[in-house]
Amino acid sequence: MIFKRKFLLRSIVELIVFALLIALLAVIQLVMPLKYTQQIVILTYHRVSDNMPNPWDSRETVTPQQFREHLAFLKDHGFHVMALNDALTTLQDPQKAITPNSVVLTFDDGDRTYAENAVPILRDFQYPSTEFIIGKASLFSKKDYLSWPEIRDLAKDPLITLHSHTFNAHATIQAEGKTYFATDPLYLPREHQMESPSDYQRRILHDFKQEQDLFQKYLGRNDNVIALPYGHAAKSFISLAQESGYSYVLTQDRTQANYHKVDPTHIFRLDVGNRITDTSRLSLLLKGLTSSGPLHGIFWLKVKYNQILFDFSPRF
């Protein structure tokens, strides 16, 4: 009995010492300069505006001042801001060197605040960026989204690239008490059944064709890069995207940075476009994302914890 107690006590002490060592290593990593190699981090934003009438806007909006501070942070800490197209080709070619602290700036949805507020700041820093366009929203909206003629004008700027965010699959549908993503097979209330595989395929291929037709009409080219709405899609969606000419698929998977030979249909991105991400948090996220060992584990726990808070509190 005494031996068992001693063994148990020793095991507990060893676990405590191990935990303290892990914590110490994480602290050491935190205070070390932010530097990473052989990785490319792709950052995601949505809106850049002081106007946030809805509490949920804080989840995907940064103020112009906050965005400027993000870019100043990248500049002051020696980050190499790459164009997305250059990053994607570099990642698929192991012979191409990756500059240390490489980062890419992307924006989702084709929101008007990208052109009105983000682009002028980006031009001040001479940083390249990419906007992902929801085709239908830009085709019919005159208020919140950039029109296609405006998108065509933006494309003349060598610092700007435009890519796809689907034509009309950026939506969720409530049915039978569940949430269905439009990138997945949908529940059909009138038929009281799920969309058949053939109907799903037909709908998604038609969506891609409409998006590609708009790119051809206004930008004179087909597109080969698509960002998943909500970062989510069924596996068959990815296959249909490839069939429609999309070689690269960007997700909202923020569990790691991108290394050479990353799966081109699963490009990782880190969403930093929210009110809680000041430069201190940006630094922490970048350190955690690009590190290995205990700090990366702590980062991942923090990501999951933050997601839970976001889900329950839009003001977080």
TrEMBL record:
Name under which the protein is recorded: Polysaccharide deacetylase family protein
Top-level taxon of origin: Bacteria
GO cellular component, one term: extracellular region
The UniProt record lists the keyword Signal: yes
GO MF annotation terms: hydrolase activity, acting on carbon-nitrogen (but not peptide) bonds
TM spans (from-to): 12-32
Species classification: Bacteria, Bacillati, Bacillota, Clostridia, Eubacteriales
Subcellular location(s) of the protein: Secreted
A family per Pfam: Polysacc_deac_1
Keywords: Membrane, Signal, Transmembrane, Transmembrane helix
Stretches assigned to the NodB homology domain: 101-316
GO biological process, one term: carbohydrate metabolic process
